[in-house]
Amino acid sequence: MDITEQIKPISFLKANTTEIVKNFDNGQEEPIIITQNGEAKMVVISIKAYQSQLQELRRVNEQMAFMKLMAMSAKEIAEGKVVSEEDFLGSLDKDD
């Protein structure tokens, strides 16, 4: 569906709230962009779409954090900031 078909004035939202909710309950996935005085002001989406977007955002954030850790690790390896396996395991056995 063309997104321009989903741009509606705020009066449409006020007059058709029940129908909009029913459409989302019946599987409408496209968001509705609400305008006021010809300017986009808000987006109405189903709870299912909202939860899906939150989940995707969390996944992307986790991937970004992992990639940052990998870059930091590569930098430390390049700088020689490493400990041998033997030294690391030996440090675990030491009493403090």
UniProtKB/TrEMBL annotation:
Q: Which InterPro entries match?
A: Antitoxin_Phd/YefM (IPR006442), YefM-like_sf (IPR036165)
By its UniProt entry, which SUPFAM superfamilies does this protein fall under? YefM-like
Tell me one Pfam family matched here.
Answer: PhdYeFM_antitox
**The organism sits in which domain of life?**
Bacteria
Q: What functional role does this protein have?
A: Antitoxin component of a type II toxin-antitoxin (TA) system.
**Family according to the record:** Belongs to the phD/YefM antitoxin family.
Q: What is this protein called?
A: Antitoxin
* Gene source species: Pseudoduganella namucuonensis
